[in-house]
Amino acid sequence: MHPAATHEVRYYARPNIAYVPFDDAPPLEYGLVWQAAADTGRIRAFAEAAVQTVRRQGGPGDVCAECR
């Protein structure tokens, strides 16, 4: 048994895995993570694009300070 987000059924459906929904769990939260030593302009641009996409889609307004 492994808890998974609802969207995994759509994006990662497998015929040998049974997804059983349950409604009494708190929502899962995701975040971008990368090594500080590997930080590049391209990574920061991707993170900013992800933040803006989440906001346009009505996602959480409390995006981490590093991502703003």
SSE topology:
Layout: H1 7-11, H2 41-56
N-to-C CA distance: 35 Å
Morphology: elongated
> Could you tell me the number of beta strands?
0
Domain module count: 1
Structural class from helices and strands?
mainly alpha
Largest sheet: none
The amount of helix comes to 25-40%
What features would you describe in this structure?
The structure is a single chain. The protein has 68 residues and is an all-alpha fold. Helices cover 31% and strands 0% of the residues. The chain has helices spanning 7-11, 41-56. The longest helix is centred in the C-terminal third of the chain and has 16 residues, at 41-56. The mean pLDDT is 81.
Brief descriptors of the model:
68 residues; mainly alpha
Q: Quick gist of this model?
A:
This protein is mainly α and 68 residues long. The protein contains 2 helices and no strands.
